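Late entry, written up from scratch paper. The run itself happened at the end of the previous shift, but nothing got recorded in the book at the time, so transcribing now.
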Amino acid sequence: MGSIRATIIATAVACVAISHRSLTQQPADVVPLHVTSRALDIRVDYGHGSLNGSETLHVRNTSKRSTAEIPLLLNRLMTVSRITDGNGVVVPFQQSVVLFRDDSVLQVNAISARLRKPVAAGDSIALVIQYGGHLVGYTETGSLYIKDKVDSAFTIIREDAFAFPVIGVPSRRVNRATGYEPFMFDVRVTVPSMFVVATGGMVDAIAKHDSLVIWRYRSITPAPALNVAIAPYRTIDESGLRIFYLPEDSAGAQMVERSITRALAQYAEWFGPVGGKSNVTVIEIPEGWGSQASLSGGIIQTADAFRDRDQLYQVYHELSHLWNVNETDKPSPRWNEGLASFLQWRMAAQLDGWSGWDARIERLESSLKRNCQADAPCTKIPLADYGRAELTDYSYSVGMAMFYALFKTLGPESFDKAYRSYYQQHRVMGGTSAELVAAFHDVDPRSDRIFADWFSTTKWQSRLAAGEKLRDIVNGYAH
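Output as recorded:
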């Protein structure tokens, strides 16, 4: 019976499997190192607009041979002053400000540390990196949300701006191909006493020294990212939900708290219990600074969702990511952004009475046609390969159309059963795109046509370009 089932699935998702193999083959030029834990101990200097302190990295060699070279990236206006290993032995290094090889406007401080004794394949090493300098953003690269700086109104310390040393080389392609593994964190941040430091995990200690406060947070489970926000926050902390909000948004914080409580319960009803501990941290950040979600690392959510009930769909989008597994396709096509883009509206309809599906699908159709015309890459490269081709900006719209089609064709009960099965089976060890396709196939083989059109090929684009309406394409899958 097992061999028959395997044959059926292999036939149904042949195109996906071919694409999946292309995604999971390890490129020759990846960084063979992964961070397993990081500890930050930094002081924020508002007078000089700078950060100073140290980062302790535990790094595992994931390759099949020993390596002595540890490549690091840091904000372009920051420098490393000293590196030692876990035994306190000084590690020699070089650093220079360079441009990314495949992004002529992205500038970083590239550091190369040379271990005196190479780390063997599969082994780990600890590095203690003393660093500091001015924090600046990267809006000139086109990442308009990375406006990071040390400011008394709001400060954020995150990898997006290389605000602390990260493993990597000055190449987007290589870093994406390498991928990232979740890591444990231990954060100590010293700030003036009028500020609150906010991140995910558990508040382990708060120590006061004269006019300064040292905040310490530790992760409960591994996190995919670390975002540390600093502002004169107020907090709501009850029933496993902690919200850090800006003082002027007290009423909005109450609204967000009620909506999050209801949405978490609804997602759990659809897809089962979330993996790990259920404590959820939500941190308000200014508009335009980029929302992001992680159960262990916390949710950073822009202020517009705190100030306008019609923007609550943004919260639902980020909350849905708590029901994502670690994608083991490297680099990831990020179809989970398409899923979140669909679920944000499904949740708004469920909880808030939103009724704009017809207009939303028309706008989605217009967007797909506008952005995938003529020789645009998305006319030839399928969603399955968006990670490899660095086209994941399209994952939101193409992925949303795919999951909308699955929902409309299979119906809520079967859709939820399929995704629940995928999530619950793979939430610990991670999952592949092919395993997602198989989970939907097991519930309803009609999903095969949808994945074939929207995931493994660009047939969806050909049909839209030929004049078919998105709504008609979706409705046709039911027959």
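The two ends are 28 Å apart (CA to CA).
(Scratch paper discarded after transcription.)
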